[in-house]
Amino acid sequence: xxxxxxxxxxxxxxxxxxxxxxxxxxxxxxxxxxxxxxxxxxxxxxxxxxxxxxxxxxxxxxxxxxxxxxxxxxxxxxxxxxxxxxxxxxxxxxxxxxxxxxxxxx
Length: 106
Known about the structure:
This protein is mainly beta.
């Protein structure tokens, strides 16, 4: 099984070679019986950001993750299939360098 870190690197490389805009995606990671949900933002710019906020909205059958970065908003809906121990927001650039990790525990 491919590790979460390797998945993130492969996705970052895919974005780099396809010259796409910044994107937000999700990954599920397992450690023992615990499940973790990662919201991963690949940022094409190395500039530091001043304004960042996050919202996680849990609905009956899905989870909405909303990222506000400067003047842009990114939204991702994930079907709520599992009960997750915690959620993570990970920001990385297209060279697979991680800039920020935030854990949300409910």
